[in-house]
Please model this.
Amino acid sequence: MLIGCYLCIEKHLNIMGKKVCIGLSGGVDSSVAALLLKRQGYDVFAMFMQNWHDTEGTLHGDCEWEEDRFVAEMVARKIGIPFYFIDLSNEYRQRVVDYMFDEYSKGRTPNPDVLCNREIKFDAFLKAARKMGADLVATGHYCRKEPALGPDGQQIMRDGKPVWRILAGTDPNKDQSYFLCQLTEEQLSMAMFPIGDICKPEVRRLAAEADLPSAEKKDSQGICFVGKVDLPVFLQQKLKSVEGDVVEVFDAYFNDSAQYQYIKSTVNSILADDWLGEVSLVTDYISDDKAAHSEAGDYEGGCRYDSIYNFDKVRALTDEQLVRLSKPVTYEDIKFETETYRSGKHHIRKTRYKANPYGAVIGRHEGAQFYTIGQRKGLNIGGHKDSLFVISTDIENNIIYVGEGHQHKGLSRSCLMVTPDEIHWIREDLRMQVGEIRRYRVRIRYRQPLQDALLIMREAGLFILFEAPQRGITPGQFAVWYDRDEMLGSGVI
Model:
């Protein structure tokens, strides 16, 4: 009983005098986060960020941010906390949107929401909040922050500062830890996530119970602070439309592809000794509409089963072998020759492509930079039993390569590489050393269920070897690794 009292007193003392800035967006999540902070006794004030003015390419009406600001101000007034407005649109354009345009121009697919958290919410916004006297900055993210404890039960210290952990949110369908994968130790130390340990229905209930103006407001969708967009139209603000070929790649190509056969033979050469047969290089279709979630107790060392790989065999692979293993199959060597023929009763001379066992030109597009690997919508090409998916883009030659069906060989990859300059650790004390191999769980998209994988640290970079091939991996995405519920680090693919 006395121990409980002492803990309550200690918590109260930690809260007293703490000034917290809540990033109030006008949505229900940040509203309830502000409400909880106020109830817990923090000295809370709210700031609303305006980060975007343009409406070109957006799918909703003009001036949505004005409505959001109005709701946010009403929420602050209802809770009884000061409300401020800050315009960070210049910073957002320079540090998020310009980067996004540049990445798309190179045929890469960035995640602007991850960049927004790293560059804006926990950098530009954090600095502005600190100037106004804030000790901490809070957001409405569904994730958790806890002290990192050592074997003695005491919080770990590094360079004289306490070390913190960032964990997945309690709600498996709303976990947003992925979007915070680029935070630094310092940024995390000044962050708060008040709703991370409660579920969305409870957030809605608390908002309704407190009669907050945002209680029934729909969740925002699309690009952070921009909204839902028609991506090609949005990108055309800076990227030109140029017509090019859409090439369908047939299954026969992979039988003669040196890279595909290398991947196949190498993956099968490092399987565990008790693994029977060959591993498939094609993944079953898994929807990312709902996140998969399992309790930590279901896993040994954070992973579901024993690894399919032999660690000694993996360790014996050279850097050069791993680099080649991580490279995707490309299709530039599929060439098409033309032939002339006569058609119709007037025998009009026409030109067509000769038949090719590896592929066929099946349509036209308006710019390879407007498409991403794994994309199904927007191709507007019929005549196929199953859906067509983008499997590769050739920006230099403006060609899109597609494959038919969820299980097309071009959609799956087993190994990724993160270059040394793109490796980021939230837990610096857990950073891997060259030659080290660890088994973690990894995701490459926000809603994707966590996947078992080996992380292999080499001089050339960090290699992620999945135990099941992954569908629709795109350069520019963030690969994020977890140990059970704790997010440890990330890297740009």
Summary: The radius of gyration is 25 Å. The chain has two domains: 15-235, 278-327+411-492. Residues 1-13, 289-300 have pLDDT under 50 and may be disordered. The first strand starts at residue 19 and ends at 23.
